[in-house]
Specification:
heterotrimer; A alpha/beta (472); B alpha/beta (193); C alpha/beta (247); A: 472 residues; alpha/beta; Rossmann fold; six-stranded parallel sheet; 21 helices; C: 247 residues; four-stranded parallel sheet; 8 strands; globular
């Protein structure tokens, strides 16, 4: 599943998604359920806004002191026997992971859900080198069997129906068709258990590394995070450079906010804190952390964009986004879809890599409202739009458009002349304007009609009359 | 004092119900009977239990051994051959019930803090189909913050820790709730007076 | 601002001036009813938001400076458009204004309001005379709702009228899909979002939809007209001013 060029095709993907979606697509229903569940949990905490403000401040503080926190982490890791690797980009991360697996003499890696592992596209790479990468999170397992990418940060199979999954299992696992979710889950449980018990290497994405103690925290509801950190000999933990929190108290807050914001739970079923290899020589014998940059330091260096690194990957912004609700995650063409993706992807790789992403938003602000760490996504989208403008050539037609806009709006005389002209055209050719001027507007909508007399003209007419009948 | 304790227990009962876990409050003397009745309702043939001192004191080990079904008791933590370890995991995976103690439980969410255990013993709360956790009622704390405070005070904060809130679950298929994905299908908390 | 102003400057955005003058006229009427002198500064044109939203800060800043100079000495500025007011109050600060422009902004942003904010929060208006015996769906335009916290104000004024049935839709805070240039750049998406909003309105049984922003209503009206839906758009100022609906 390669993301290399897909972000550039956003507009095309969005159009195609709208044309080909069913009349009641699953992501519409499911995002709305998620929004409602989150709202219930938020309502339970009368001090929710204070908690959110505190978490925001603590998260920002962590981002601003990352170098120091990483220093603390490495001290604990050294003491507890965790091996650290630094990866500047996805390529380095992949090679490091491969070398660990090879050194362990293993042919298979059992994975617990990790967006970061998707970001570095580890699965295909391992497969190319003869190593099987098995997804164990149910939703991830399903999309892996289908050869697809996840369509949502916390609900990978959100775009699929039970019938889709039933047919998939029947075909790929050779079981009798059923579309009953408990039965389907049992099938996956049985199949994956065999894998868990014989696994040599487990791979997790770290939700948070705790600087105070060196712990690697992973949350799951299914138990696969525990499985892959308890049973195999070797554990590989992927850590995004920014996913560090200061203390256990901070972790307690972030875990609760993550649970409530992502899935409307008060707490995920499992919070697993890995301190290091088993001191008695049991499993895991080795714990490796690969700390991955892959554009995060670039974001960090940009003062304006830095605050996006507060993200705790809850997906609440996706669920709240009216654009995401219409098209789901795939059109974004990158591992992080929705509002966070629209910022994170161009911020990480430069706006040239995803030039349309910052514009695919009505800036409604529902994302910022839902974000447990108050990331001002609309403001960041606007900042990216400005960065996009700075890359436009002098001959880019949009430059001309806004220069004209400025000229027209910069003088009342010119403005009145321009609007009088437009009104005149409309008068002479009423059907004409319907297909003109603003491309795109009239594809599915009728354009507004110029009033015969503008406000200014009518105000002048009526100036003597303080109150008159308003009949337009 | 007793009133606030009872009030907290009520909050806990509601919280556990919300996450599809069961709360059983019993006296120290009632533990054996409570366990026996649970084993019956779960049709438990094979039971795994950690070798924690506390479980012996609660009389849980006795109750397990007394049951005529095949019991599986966790071996002591020591270096073992790889083959033995693998066989042990298989037996655990086939067990119906796993029993552990808990360091504390949070009333607001029903979250358990499991005790620090070796990896083999940790799997007792993970691999068998059902999980039973025993703890004394004075281990009941109000919320998750308090749970973390308990852990910080305990000795092994460099080791692993596991927080458990209800049985394993997923809503990955059309957002419909299913219990028992990879971890236990059911969770039963025995709160002992 | 301690005392209520006696003299109010209107800001009528370009699209209201050209497409929805009735909204402007209704605004005038509502303000005069409160005994205020209403001033319309002829040179006004645009707050610069469209350029800003498209990433063209320099062009936006040029228009922002013009706006600030025009309204610098106004006691109070009132506009029937929440998104324009939000632009001035909040986003002008992101345009790199310097010196006198910056200090003008710091001052002016405390003296500019959306109409319903002004009537309710500043003047304390609780009651509006007249009747509007229809079911009206209220759509909280996003900038007003999230940037300015406007919701209760228009609702309270509308509900004080006789015979009116104001419905708040389920998920009312979901964006209608206008979003400025988004409406043209991503038009299929914009319309899909509008259609969902209109579906909710139809389900509510409302024959009217109202909002603080004619831009939202213009977008919805475009879909309504193309699809011949039985819903009419009407800015709330026009309802409050007693505009009787066309037959």
């Amino acid at each position: 599943m390669s993301y290399a060029n897909r972000p550039k095709e956003l507009k095309r993907q969005l159009g195609s998604a709208l044309r080909t979606r069913s009349s009641d697509p699953p992501f519409k229903r499911n995002t709305r359920k998620a929004v409602s569940a989150r709202a219930d949990r938020v309502a339970e905490w009368p001090d929710f806004e204070e908690r959110r403000a505190r978490a925001t401040a603590r998260r920002q503080e962590a981002i601003d002191t990352l170098a120091e926190l990483h220093g603390q982490l490495r001290q604990h890791w050294a003491k507890n026997g965790i091996t650290v690797h630094e990866a500047r980009d996805d390529n380095e991360a992949r090679h490091i992971a491969l070398s660990i697996v090879r050194a362990a003499g293993a042919k298979r890696v059992l994975k617990s859900k990790s967006m970061l592992s998707e970001e570095i596209e580890i699965n295909d790479f391992l497969e190319q080198h003869g190593i099987e990468a098995v997804e164990t999170d149910l939703g991830e397992y399903v999309v892996q069997l289908r050869g697809e990418a996840p369509s949502h940060i916390t609900m990978p199979a959100m775009h699929l129906s039970r019938q889709n999954i039933g047919r998939l299992f029947a075909k790929r696992l050779g079981v009798e068709y059923t579309d009953d979710p408990p039965a389907l889950t049992q099938i996956a449980r049985r199949t994956l258990r065999r894998q868990f018990l014989s696994a040599e290497v487990g791979m997790i994405g770290v939700n948070f590394a705790v600087a105070e103690t060196g712990h690697l925290a992973t949350v799951t509801n299914e138990g696969n995070g525990r499985m892959v950190t308890t049973l195999p000999r070797v554990v590989i933990a992927l850590l995004g450079w920014e996913r560090v929190t200061q203390s256990l108290e901070d972790l307690a807050q972030l875990w609760q906010l993550l649970s409530r914001s992502a899935t409307g739970q008060r707490a995920t079923v499992y919070l697993n804190l890995t301190g290091g290899p088993d001191p008695e020589g049991g499993c895991p014998q080795q714990v490796h952390v690969i700390v991955i940059d892959n554009g995060r330091k670039r974001i960090h260096a940009d003062r304006e964009m830095r605050e996006v690194l507060r993200c705790i990957r809850c997906g609440a912004c996706l669920n709240a986004c009216p654009v995401y609700q219409q098209v789901g995650g795939y059109p974004y063409g990158d591992v992080y879809p929705g509002p966070i993706g629209a910022v994170f992807t161009p911020a990480r790789e430069g706006v040239r890599s995803a030039p349309d992403h910052p514009f695919a938003s009505s800036l409604c602000g529902a994302c910022e409202e839902a974000c447990p760490v108050s990331i001002p996504l609309p403001k960041l989208l606007l900042a990216l739009r400005k960065q996009r403008t700075e890359l436009r050539s002098a001959f880019d037609p949009e430059r001309g458009l806004w220069r004209s806009f400025r000229t027209v709006m910069g003088s009342r005389r010119i403005y009145e002349a321009a609007t009088a002209f437009a009104r005149g055209v409309q008068f002479i050719w009423p059907g004409g304007p319907k297909k003109m001027v603003i491309p795109g507007w009239t594809d599915h909508r009728d354009p507004p009609v110029f009033a015969k007399r503008s406000f200014r003209e009518q105000f002048d007419d009526r100036n003597a009359k303080p109150e008159g009948p308003e009949n337009g | 004092m007793a009133d606030s304790k009872r009030a907290l227990q009520k909050v806990l009962a509601a919280a556990l119900e919300r996450v599809d876990a069961q709360l059983i409050v019993t006296s120290a003397k009632g533990v054996a009977a409570a366990l026996s009745s649970l084993f019956d309702s779960l049709a438990a043939q094979t039971v795994a239990i950690t070798n924690e001192r506390e479980l012996v004191d609660f009389g849980a080990v006795k109750a397990v051994v007394a049951r005529s079904a095949t019991a599986v008791v966790a071996p002591p933590s020591e270096k073992r051959a790889a083959a033995e370890a693998a066989e042990w995991k298989q037996r655990l995976a086939g067990a119906d019930v796993g029993i552990t103690s808990a360091l504390a439980i949070a009333a607001e969410t029903g979250t358990l803090l499991l005790p620090p255990l070796s990896p083999d013993q940790r799997a007792v709360s993970l691999l068998p189909t059902h999980h039973i956790a025993l703890l004394s009622e004075d281990r009941l704390v109000p919320d998750i913050e308090a749970l973390f405070a308990v852990w910080k005070k305990s000795e092994r904060t460099d080791g692993n820790a596991v927080f458990v809130t209800g049985p394993s679950r997923t809503s990955d298929i059309e957002k419909e709730l299913v219990l028992g994905v990879h971890g236990p299908q059911s969770l039963h908390v025995l709160l002992i007076r | 601002m301690a005392a209520t102003p006696g003299r109010v400057h209107l800001f009528i955005p370009c699209f209201v001036d050209q497409f929805f003058p009735e909204t402007g006229l209704a605004t005038v009427q509502l303000l005069r009813r409160q005994g205020l002198e209403v001033v319309y500064e002829r040179e006004q044109t645009c707050c610069g938001q469209p350029a800003f939203n498209s990433g063209f800060h320099r062009d936006a800043a040029h228009l922002a400076k013009r706006f600030l100079r025009l309204f610098r000495d106004a006691e109070a500025v009132v506009a029937p458009s929440a998104s324009c007011v939000a632009m001035v109050r909040r986003h002008y600060g992101e345009l790199g204004l310097q010196g006198e422009d910056a200090s003008t902004w710091e001052s002016l942003r405390t003296r500019i309001w959306e109409l319903s904010e002004f009537l309710v929060d500043v003047l304390g208006v609780k009651q509006v005379p007249g009747a509007f015996p229809h079911r009206v769906a209220y759509h909280p335009s996003c900038h007003g709702l999230r940037e300015l916290g406007i919701l209760k104000q228009p609702l309270s004024l509308l509900r004080s009228m006789k015979g009116i049935d104001v419905v708040e839709l389920n998920d009312q805070e979901r964006c209608c899909g206008f979003g400025g240039t988004f409406a043209a750049k991503f038009s299929a998406l914009s319309v899909a979002m509008g259609e969902d909003k209109l579906e909710a309105i139809e389900k509510s049984g409302a024959s009217y939809v109202t909002a603080t922003d004619d831009s939202c209503l213009m977008h919805l009206a475009g879909i309504i007209s193309r699809r011949s839906l039985p819903i009419r758009t009407l800015h709330y100022a026009r309802i409050l001013a007693g505009e009787s609906p066309e037959p």
